[in-house]
Amino acid sequence: MNILVNSVGFTADLSLVDFVKRKITKVETFYDRIIDGEVFLKLDKGDNVKFQKKFIEIKLNVPGNSIFVKESGTTFEEATDIAVEVLSRQVKKHKQKTNGSKHVPVANAVDPVFEESEDLETI
Length: 123
Known about the structure:
- The chain is an alpha+beta fold and 123 residues long.
- The protein has a single domain, classed as Double Stranded RNA Binding Domain, CATH 3.30.160.
- The protein contains 3 helices and 4 strands; from the N terminus they run E-H-E-E-E-H-H.
- The protein has helices at 14-25, 76-99, 112-119; strands at 2-8, 36-43, 54-62, 65-73.
- The protein has a 4-stranded mixed β-sheet with strand order 1-2-3-4, covered by helices on one side.
- A hairpin with a 2-residue loop joins strand 3 (54-62) and strand 4 (65-73).
- The protein starts with a strand and ends with a helix.
């Protein structure tokens, strides 16, 4: 999967870019048909210069659709961790929709051993 990382309004450090790419490629373990991804790293220019909020926007292109996540944090690493968690859930949900498989709750599952024991006569 090819991931393009863009930093808006500043120059991102190589270690930050590597961290973001490494985290996002872990999402590929949930769904192997991801085509590519694009990441935008942004700084919030608020009133207080010491505590700027960091934003990350991730867009993953999957066949027939795209998955988008926007999160914020006090550091880019924190924002990336939060965004990857949300992205993982969305990718799993997308995979489940495309495969058409439904998860069967355990309460509705049939136990074949129990059914056979009901047919036996009690002595």
